[in-house]
């Protein structure tokens, strides 16, 4: 009889220890699956190096003097602002958003924002061929860049897609002014948000 | 002894309701299915022994497909190149965007006179629901559920846990295997590489 309280105590200690360990056991793989903390307004965009677009008109759109095959940095874009769409050709939300992003680009390029705001896309985890498939399927006119080895994705804190970043190109250099994770809703509303932020 | 037990229960409860522990995020970038996707963690890249090789006639098979019919590999002989795409399982990362990507690239397959044939080891109802959640695909999707993994085993891509490898087999119009990619199950193959292999057939 004298041993019973100790046995019960051991059992309780065991239960306590087990309960304390459950979260670490059960959720161990989740940290691996979670995205990093996204960018906040006012943070500085990392120094992204991209390949100069193959089409001369697209290089000219961004004001790039470099030749095809060379690289450039976001800070070399001529427009004072750039909207970066981080997408993935395999992402069904990105596929669903593509027509809307095209409409947004049309509004920007045909309106007063044309000289003020550039639009580019980065296909994270996509090879040049996969980016080309995405471009051709949706007849995308703004420059798209491949990031097959996820290097840019890592620099961008590995966001899920689509992810939109409005960045001040100059003064202050590469300052992130607005971000949007996921679909951005209606084109006029998002355009109004961009315009408001750039004022 | 009651105090530590209470603390343990409270600690567990806090962690369970904490947003930081909600297992909703898949590893790969993107996908409308992100909330429904089961995250298995990183798996052994490959767990099977290939039983076919390039240059041999592809073993024939007939499987039920989600449209209600059956699909037979040899029915394409003399007509189309066939890309057989085994993916490990419905409702898992990578698989849940690999086929939507192929769906987008329908023109690329058509240009190369190829059809795509998707196969998993899931049963028809699960497979059907998964494809519906994707918004549908243009290519036939077949179930290798019963006898479980018979076709995957025939090709040597059935893993020890009953899943298929993430594998691509390119079969030409003569029924001969011309390209095999048993890919790391955790990663998506580059569609550009497959397109280049298809281009070789059409030269």
Structure description:
The complex is a heterodimer of chains A (199) and B (203). Chain A has 199 residues and is an alpha/beta fold. Chain A has a single domain (29-198), classed as Glutaredoxin (3-Layer(aba) Sandwich), CATH 3.40.30.10. Chain A has seven helices and seven strands, in the order H-H-E-H-E-E-H-E-H-E-H-E-E-H. In chain A, the strands form two sheets. In chain A, strands 5-4-3-6-7 form a five-stranded mixed β-sheet. Residues 1-11 and 13-34 of chain A have low confidence and may be disordered. With 203 residues, chain B is α/β, with parallel strands linked by helices. The longest helix of chain B has 16 residues, at 2-17. Classes of the chains: A alpha/beta (199), B alpha/beta (203). At the A-B interface, helix 1, helix 2, helix 4 and helix 5 of A face helix 1, helix 2 and helix 6 of B.
The interface involving the most residues is between: A-B, 45 and 42 residues
Low-confidence stretches of chain B: 1-31
Largest sheet of chain B: 5 strands, mixed
Strand percentage of chain A lies at 15-25%
Order of neighbouring strands in the sheet with most strands of chain A = 5-4-3-6-7
Distance between the termini of chain A: 81 Å
What integer value in Å does the Rg of chain A equal? 23 Å
Task: Return the string of H and E elements of chain A.
Answer: HHEHEEHEHEHEEH
Low-confidence stretches of chain A: 1-11, 13-34
CATH class of chain A: Alpha Beta
CATH superfamily of chain A: Glutaredoxin
Spell the H/E element sequence of chain B. Answer: HEEEHHEHEHEEH
Q: Give the amount of beta strand of chain B, in percent.
A: 15-25%
Number of helices of chain A: 7
User: Which architecture of chain A would the CATH scheme give at its second level?
Assistant: 3-Layer(aba) Sandwich
Kindly, what is the distance between the CA atoms of the first and last residues of chain B, rounded to a whole number of angstroms? 78 Å
Give the overall form of chain A: globular
Overall pLDDT level of chain A: 84
Total strand segments of chain A: 7
Helix content of chain A: 25-40%
């Amino acid at each position: 009889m004298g041993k019973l309280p100790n046995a019960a105590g051991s059992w309780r200690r065991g239960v306590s220890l087990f309960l304390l360990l459950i979260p670490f056991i059960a959720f161990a793989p989740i940290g691996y699956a979670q995205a990093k903390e996204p960018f906040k307004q006012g943070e500085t965009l990392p120094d992204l190096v991209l390949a100069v677009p193959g089409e001369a008109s697209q290089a000219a759109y961004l004001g790039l003097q470099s030749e095809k095959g060379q690289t450039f940095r976001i800070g070399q874009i001529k427009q004072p602002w750039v909207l970066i769409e981080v997408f993935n050709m395999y992402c069904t939300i990105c596929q669903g958003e593509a027509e809307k992003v095209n409409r947004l680009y049309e509004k920007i390029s045909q309106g007063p924002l044309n000289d003020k705001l550039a639009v580019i896309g980065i296909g994270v985890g996509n090879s040049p061929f996969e980016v080309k498939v995405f471009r051709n399927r949706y007849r995308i006119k703004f420059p798209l860049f491949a990031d097959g080895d996820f290097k840019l994705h890592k620099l961008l804190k590995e966001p899920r897609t689509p992810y939109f970043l409005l960045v001040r190109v100059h003064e202050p250099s590469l300052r992130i002014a607005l971000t949007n994770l996921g679909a951005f809703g209606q084109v006029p509303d998002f355009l109004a948000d961009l315009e408001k932020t750039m004022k | 002894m009651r105090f530590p037990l209470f603390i343990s229960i409270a600690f567990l409860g806090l962690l369970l309701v904490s947003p930081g522990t909600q297992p909703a995020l898949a590893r790969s970038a993107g996908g409308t299915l992100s909330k429904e996707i089961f995250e298995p963690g990183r798996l052994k890249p490959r767990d099977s022994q290939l039983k076919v090789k390039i240059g041999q006639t592809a073993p024939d098979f007939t499987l039920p497909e989600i449209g209600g019919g059956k699909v037979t590999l040899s029915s394409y002989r003399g007509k189309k190149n066939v890309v057989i795409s085994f993916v490990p399982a419905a409702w898992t990362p990578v698989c849940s965007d690999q086929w939507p990507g192929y769906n987008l690239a329908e023109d690329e397959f058509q240009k190369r006179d190829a059809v795509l044939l998707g196969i998993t080891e899931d049963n028809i109802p699960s497979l059907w629901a998964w494809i519906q959640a994707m918004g549908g695909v243009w290519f036939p999707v077949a179930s290798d559920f019963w006898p479980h993994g018979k076709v995957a085993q025939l090709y040597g891509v059935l893993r020890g846990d009953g899943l298929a490898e993430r594998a691509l087999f390119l079969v030409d119009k003569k029924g001969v295997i011309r390209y095999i990619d048993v890919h790391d199950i955790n990663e998506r193959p580059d569609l550009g590489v497959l397109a280049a292999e298809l281009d070789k057939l059409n030269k």
